[in-house]
Design goal:
Layout (H helix, E strand, L loop, with lengths): L6 E7 L2 E6 L7 E4 L1 H6 L26 E8 L7 E7 L4 E5 H6 L5 H4 L16 H4 L4 E3 H6 L1 H13 L2 E5 L7 H7 L13 E3 L15 E4 L11 E8 L7 E5 H11 L1 H9 L2 E6 L4 E6 L2 E3 L5 E4 L16 H16 L4 E4 L6 E5 L3 E5 L9 E7 L1 H15 L1
Parallel strand pairs: 7-8
Antiparallel strand pairs: 1-2, 2-3, 4-5, 5-6, 8-18, 9-20, 10-19, 11-18, 11-20, 12-17, 12-19, 13-14, 15-16
Helix pairs in contact: 6-11, 8-9, 8-10, 9-10
The structure holds zinc ion.
């Protein structure tokens, strides 16, 4: 019985390395194929010691690479390792046992909880009750304290959104918020856009009408993955913001109406936006899946959906599924409603969270400023902050 140790060398069998995991994994033996191990060799010949990037292409690795010999060695730092000699060329590499345990292939699928890596810390919420308090941070704290910044950025990955309070209600400040975790994604709407009543609105956003839950810019590929909305002035009445977790809704659709789920994930829909300066078009399913069959993105905005091109006999079935999905997303109990106050800046994942607003009075001159940024950039900033505070 191996206890206390992450893993020990078990041996070499059939050209593969075998490692026995520690007590936590019940002493399970896991196998590493030669070609896999060789591709992941981090020796000075195989990888750049500083950047850690591989120096070879996949065709440089012999497909019949095998492990011919392996022995435990005490590493100077970072725990014990296994020195491996590869065939057919006699190449030698060193693999840390902890690293091998973390990258085990056998049992990998069992460790995934449905979404696995793809969920990336996401916690789905069906209603406001699932969240408890709205995830928020005060801007002065966020700026001054890395821990507050980590908490706020983590909330965007976990819940899909966060509200920063006390961001000075000054035009343009939303760009500074975006730059605090990444880069502004400029679009045809500019570096930032104003959400307020305009005399000749080219978009429903620039009226006082109600807007149902939707995602932004579905006619772009890639879609802007983060959206920010900064409240400068509120209407006297109405203009409340509503958020819906599209991933949670998709999970419900899959559970309650698997046929509709299959139709929507398997049908490509074309979205388009046109004005004087832009002709933007993108074709994607309303619910986009990963190769593992898990939900990885939602696009929902009927305003820009183009005529569906489907075999005649499949059209009614598509509309039935589309309607079911729309009704599910519009359910009031799915919507988290909040009233942004001047200084509030909402940051949300535009691939997951749908946003809505209620109609509002023309008095009070409601004014929001928004911009777009990138979710992977936010995740990167968070990872760097976490690394620095560890
Ligand atoms: Zn090597």
């Amino acid at each position: 019985v191996v206890s206390g140790l992450v893993a020990v060398l078990a041996g070499v069998r059939g050209g593969e390395l075998e490692v026995r995991l520690g007590a936590e994994a019940e002493g399970r033996v896991v196998r590493f194929p030669g070609v896999w191990l060789r591709d992941n060799c981090l020796c000075g010949e195989c990888a750049d010691p500083v950047a850690g990037q591989k120096l070879h292409g996949v065709t440089d690795i012999p497909l019949d690479a095998s492990v011919v010999e392996a022995e435990m060695v005490e590493a100077e730092a970072g725990g014990d390792g296994v020195a491996v000699t590869f065939g057919p060329d006699g190449h030698r590499g060193l693999f840390e046992l902890g690293w091998l345990a973390r990258h085990a292939l056998d049992g990998y699928e069992d460790e995934l909880d449905g979404y696995g890596d793809e969920l990336n810390g996401k916690e789905l919420w069906g209603a406001s009750a699932d969240i408890g308090a709205v995830p928020e941070a005060r801007w002065p704290c966020y700026v001054a304290d890395p821990a507050a910044r980590i908490g706020a950025l983590r909330a965007v990955l976990r819940w899909g959104f966060v509200v920063l309070r006390e961001v000075p209600a000054v035009p343009g400040r939303v760009l500074e918020v975006a730059e605090s975790f990444g880069f502004v994604r400029e679009t045809n709407y500019g570096r930032l856009f104003d959400v307020r009543i305009e005399p000749a609105p080219g978009n429903l956003a620039f009226t006082s009408r109600e807007i149902l839950p939707h995602t932004d810019n579905p006619y772009r590929d890639p879609v802007p993955t983060i959206q920010l909305l900064h409240c400068l002035r509120v209407a006297d009445e109405g203009g409340d913001t509503g958020l819906v977790d599209g991933f949670a809704a998709a999970a419900e659709l899959q559970a309650t109406d698997p046929e509709a789920f299959e139709v929507l994930t398997g049908t490509t829909v074309r979205f388009e936006y046109r004005d004087k300066a832009a002709v933007l078009s993108a074709s994607q399913p309303l619910i986009q899946l990963s190769p593992r069959g898990t939900v990885r993105g939602i696009r929902f905005n009927n305003r820009s959906v183009q005529p569906i091109r489907l075999p005649y006999e499949r059209v009614r079935e598509f509309y039935a599924a589309y309607r079911t999905w729309a009704e599910l997303l519009a359910r009031p109990e799915r919507r988290l409603v909040m009233r942004l106050a001047p200084g509030d800046c909402l940051i949300f994942d535009n691939t997951r969270i749908l946003h809505a607003r209620t109609a509002f009075s023309v008095t009070g001159s409601r004014h929001l400023q928004g911009c777009y940024a990138d979710l992977d950039g936010l995740a990167s900033t968070l990872a760097v902050l976490e690394r620095e505070t560890r």
